[in-house]
Amino acid sequence: MKTQSKAPTETSKRTDSKDWFGPFANVTSGWLGSRWGFGAAAVFIFVWALTGPIFHYSDTWQLIINSVTNIVTFLMVFLLQNTQNRDAKAINLKLDELIYSISSAKDQMIDIEKLSDKELDALSQRYENIRQQHLDRKERLSKT
Fold first, then answer.
1. Residue 54 belongs to what H/E stretch?
2. What are the CA-CA distances from residue 113 to residues 43, 98, 123 (Å)?
3. Assuming Cys at both sites, which of 12, 89, 111, 113 could form a disulfide with 8, CB separation 3.0 to 4.6 Å?
4. 140 in a structural domain
5. With contact defined as beta carbons under 8 Å apart, do 100 and 5 qualify?
6. pLDDT tens for residues 6-53?
């Protein structure tokens, strides 16, 4: 029988002081994805649009908005990817813990995200076959 894992210790809850980007990405993407971030972007666009007549809709005036939006978009890709990677890792670890804690679960399913595409396809086919067998049994039972 499998043993239950212990709750995280205080030392494992502490974050590594050298990992500044993860917490920064979480806070920044949380703020930028909020209504306040959207509002700030809308205000920026509004102010930019209002300054159009002042600058006679010049090429420089247009270049400012193009440059700012390109830079912000470029940086946001990295912030969002980091938070997605962290979320996916956390979900996989939670699922691994659930698999580990259920005695009838198959331990080989832990860390399957690290398998090759060919191995994942084989597992997918295996579970599709199990699903089909279940549907076949269900159909046979409903006919009787």
1. none
2. 42, 15, 11
3. 12
4. yes
5. yes
6. 445 444 455 556 788 888 888 888 898 899 999 999 999 999 999 999
